[in-house]
Write a structure and sequence with these properties.
35% of the residues lie in helices and 23% in strands. By secondary structure, it is an alpha+beta fold. The protein has a 6-stranded antiparallel β-sheet, sandwiched between helices. It has a 6-stranded antiparallel β-sheet with strand order 7-8-9-10-12-11, sandwiched between helices. The longest helix is centred in the middle third of the chain and has 29 residues, at 159-187. It starts with 13 loop residues before the first helix and ends with a helix.
């Protein structure tokens, strides 16, 4: 926008002409000042109180190019872009206290990968989500993306010790876990393999912690717990519909990320129709992305090991071993997720 005098000089007195020119000059300077403010304006590094600037600092030594745009951090990988967006919760008040903000991590798939899903979103996502580490393939509108979600409560003080490492690992390797594992499978490359940093001592610690809350056991590099879904006794090991089975396994490396901790929550409900099972997994993964009062979503719903049940899988790479109490937290997330999913499946007639 350019401010100029438009009135012919001969129609104005010398004083009037000078006054108008001064007014126009003042207006021009105001416009320039606004433009300078706009271009020099620093991005908000903590939208809704979530310190995206910290995440930007963590990414700085890597090859990922990060930048803040509005309420989001844009992380450019070589072949795809990850968006970490901070949004308001759908409802601020919750049973767990006021929600501070919701962080959504999404990755738009490369065009070559998107082609695989067209017309067969349910079957392909169900098959490939078994490679999940820290995110799920889900359908957003007409396209399939990779997504994760973190709901942050006002009473929480877990940013530096837990939330930041979790978001950083997801930004760095969440999408690559799935895409890389698919590439290895298609090219028949050997899985990466590797030794987990989690040990028998960590599994024993899980048992000592959760034995006060539920039926559980540990042995070697594994931990197993049963979460009640209905009143009354029951056992997931015996195949009843009253309990969900949760397992931590440190002896099952991820094909792309190597050593770490495999977390698996299996629900007891049986869905014999393969197509329906796949569609329900797709629905649950989309529902997990809502800005609601839900446990952190850094895994994926997929068919369970029975082939006729639904499971939630998650893999924590070794880089997250030092994250504050993360193994114990996965247990609490799994317990709450089991209750939520049980209710959702009932609403879907399962």
């Amino acid at each position: 926008e350019v401010a100029t005098c438009s009135a012919p000089a001969q129609d104005l007195s010398t004083a009037e002409s000078a006054s108008m020119c001064a007014t126009c000059e003042k207006r021009r300077l105001q416009i320039e000042e606004k433009e300078m403010f706009f271009w020099n304006r620093k991005p908000n590094l903590s939208p809704l109180g979530v310190a995206l600037g910290d995440l930007l600092t963590v990414l700085a030594p890597t090859t990922i190019k990060g930048r803040i745009k509005g309420n989001a951090l844009i992380a450019d990988h070589e072949h795809y872009t990850v968006t970490i967006e901070v949004v308001l919760p759908s409802v601020k008040e919750s049973e767990n206290g006021p929600i501070k903000a919701v962080v959504k991590v999404t990755t738009e798939l490369p065009e070559s990968a998107r082609e695989m899903f067209r017309g067969r979103e349910s079957s392909m996502t169900a098959a490939l989500n078994v490679f999940t580490a820290l995110g799920a393939l889900y359908k957003d509108g007409e396209s399939v993306q990779i997504g994760s979600r973190l709901t942050i409560y006002e009473v929480e003080d877990a940013w530096e010790g837990l939330h930041l490492p979790l978001l950083a690992s997801t930004t760095i390797c969440g999408a690559e876990a799935i895409l890389g594992a698919v590439r290895r499978t298609l090219s028949e490359d050997e899985p990466k393999g590797g030794v987990s940093l989690w040990t028998e001592k960590d599994m024993a610690h899980m048992e000592s912690y959760f034995s006060r809350l539920c039926l559980c056991s540990s042995g070697g590099l594994g931990f197993t717990a049963e979460f009640g879904l209905k009143d009354g006794p029951g056992s997931a090991m015996l195949g009843d519909n009253k309990t969900a089975l949760f397992q931590l396994l440190a002896n099952q490396p991820h094909p792309e990320l190597g050593g770490g901790l495999f977390c698996l929550l299996q629900l007891p409900q049986q869905i014999r129709e393969k197509d329906r099972l796949q569609k329900i997994c797709l629905q649950l993964n989309a529902m997990e992305m809502a800005a609601h009062d839900l446990p952190p979503h850094f895994g994926a719903w997929c068919p369970g090991r029975a082939g006729t049940n639904i499971a939630y899988a998650m893999f924590l790479p070794n880089s997250l071993y030092s994250a504050s109490g993360i193994a114990v937290n996965t247990g609490f997330w799994a317990f709450n997720r089991a209750q939520w999913a049980n209710a959702m499946l009932a609403s879907l007639g399962v």
